[in-house]
TrEMBL record:
<dbReference type="InterPro" id="IPR005821">
    <property type="entry name" value="Ion_trans_dom"/>
</dbReference>
<keyword id="KW-0407">Ion channel</keyword>
<feature type="transmembrane region" description="Helical">
    <location>
        <begin position="17"/>
        <end position="35"/>
    </location>
</feature>
<dbReference type="GO" id="GO:1902495">
    <property type="term" value="C:transmembrane transporter complex"/>
</dbReference>
<protein>
    <submittedName>
        <fullName>Transient receptor potential cation channel, subfamily A, member 1</fullName>
    </submittedName>
</protein>
<feature type="transmembrane region" description="Helical">
    <location>
        <begin position="79"/>
        <end position="99"/>
    </location>
</feature>
<dbReference type="Pfam" id="PF00520">
    <property type="entry name" value="Ion_trans"/>
</dbReference>
<keyword id="KW-0040">ANK repeat</keyword>
<keyword id="KW-1133">Transmembrane helix</keyword>
<dbReference type="InterPro" id="IPR052076">
    <property type="entry name" value="TRP_cation_channel"/>
</dbReference>
<keyword id="KW-0406">Ion transport</keyword>
<keyword id="KW-0325">Glycoprotein</keyword>
<feature type="transmembrane region" description="Helical">
    <location>
        <begin position="119"/>
        <end position="141"/>
    </location>
</feature>
<keyword id="KW-0675">Receptor</keyword>
<feature type="domain" description="Ion transport">
    <location>
        <begin position="5"/>
        <end position="220"/>
    </location>
</feature>
<keyword id="KW-0677">Repeat</keyword>
<keyword id="KW-0812">Transmembrane</keyword>
Length: 372
């Protein structure tokens, strides 16, 4: 199914000066990139292999050399052209990964990487379901070129999974023209495929991938800040001490009300309105205080429960007092407010009332005798 390609080589000296200069620059920059990666391996050791952007850099440099060296030597064949295509793909992907350390657009790159990881895990889990339908269609639709071989059947089933069913050409026309050997069974499996794959599985993948977007965004912002710290720490370790001592600043002064040209350029490029720098810093810090907010909410609910319990106990004490026919001194005394007189009246005042003797009198006597 492939087309034969005949590559016509052009001599390095016969082509334009601009193309020759670009080819030399590609060769030099890729050799420099490989040397840089080797130095990073000697400095970072095993931590170097944990960063997937380094693998992308190696792939781009190797494929670029496999493309540019045969092209400069006028080699025959088309394999180096395919290596060039892979080099272009990996170079732009690596450029996208480098953008995740920047403040403006880096959070979206990190979010994209996190969602892609979730999507890959889901696809790997449900790969068996796709293989099941691919094998079934390959066995039942014998006269169709889309399902003629096993790889073509898998690719066609994958395309059908994202919504490109092509029902009329693949199923309806073949069934009406009596070209479908197992028509009823094929339609039963096709209906099961439509219910399980495009409707159920694709919506499940979308829901799991982008459902919890707020949590992904919060984690992405923290991860971007961590990547910036790692980058700055690595750069500080590589630079000499005398240079770091010269450029290091023990303190920095921020003038939030002072206008600067960079704010205008940022507003012009991003299209967003200018925001207060201090307020934006406070908002970014407030996102990391979720644990404190949860604890404060818990304490607030506990205080509410305690106040409710106290109110219930207060009502219960009132009922006990009424049941025992105990009259409080606040109910008996109807005069000006006097804290000591209303709460703890003297013994002479208790005797003067004579008409209604309270049951609190023995307690008051005991307290006054203790004071004396």
């Amino acid at each position: 199914g492939e087309l034969d390609i005949i590559m016509v080589p052009i001599s390095f000296t016969e082509q334009s000066v601009f193309l020759s200069f670009c080819m030399v620059m590609v060769l030099v920059m890729n050799i420099y990139s490989i040397a840089k990666e080797v130095v990073q391996i000697s400095q970072q050791r095993w931590n170097y292999f944990r960063d997937y952007s380094n693998q992308c850099d190696w792939t781009s440099a190797i494929f670029s050399l496999l493309f540019i060296i045969p092209l400069m030597l006028n080699a025959e064949g088309s394999l180096h052209w395919q290596a060039g295509a892979m080099a272009i793909l990996n170079s732009w992907i690596g450029f996208l990964l480098y953008l995740q350390r920047f403040e403006g657009v880096g959070i979206y790159v990190v979010m994209f990487v996190e969602i892609m990881k979730t999507l890959v895990r889901i696809v790997m889990l449900f790969l068996y379901l796709m293989l099941a339908f691919s094998l079934a269609f390959h066995a039942l639709m014998l006269n169709h070129k889309e399902f003629n071989t096993m790889p073509l059947s898998v690719i066609q089933t994958f395309v059908m999974m994202v919504g490109e069913l092509n029902y009329q050409n693949n199923f309806l026309d073949a069934f009406l023209n009596y070209q479908l050997p197992f028509g009823i069974l094929t339609y039963v499996i096709f209906v099961m495929f439509v219910l399980l794959m495009p409707i159920l599985l694709v919506n499940l993948m979308i829901g799991l991938a982008v459902g919890d977007i707020a949590e992904v965004q919060r984690n992405a912002s923290l991860k971007r800040i961590a990547m910036q710290i790692d980058l700055h720490t690595a750069l500080e370790d590589k630079l000499p001490y005398w240079f770091m001592k010269r450029v290091d600043k023990p303190s920095i002064t921020i003038y939030p009300n002072r206008k600067c040209s960079r704010h205008f350029l940022k507003q012009l490029i991003s299209g967003e309105e200018e925001k207060d720098d201090v307020w934006s810093r406070l908002q970014s810090k407030s996102q990391t205080c979720s644990f404190i907010q949860v604890e404060l909410t818990k304490q607030k609910s506990r205080m509410k429960e305690m106040s409710n319990i106290l109110e219930k106990q207060h009502g219960l004490l009132k009922l006990i007092i009424q049941k025992m026919e105990i009259t409080s001194e606040a109910d008996e005394y109807d005069g000006p407010v006097n804290v000591r007189g209303s709460m703890w009246p003297s013994l002479s005042q208790a005797k003067a009332r004579g008409s209604s003797t309270s049951r609190w009198v023995p307690l008051i006597k005991a307290i006054e005798s203790k004071r004396k």
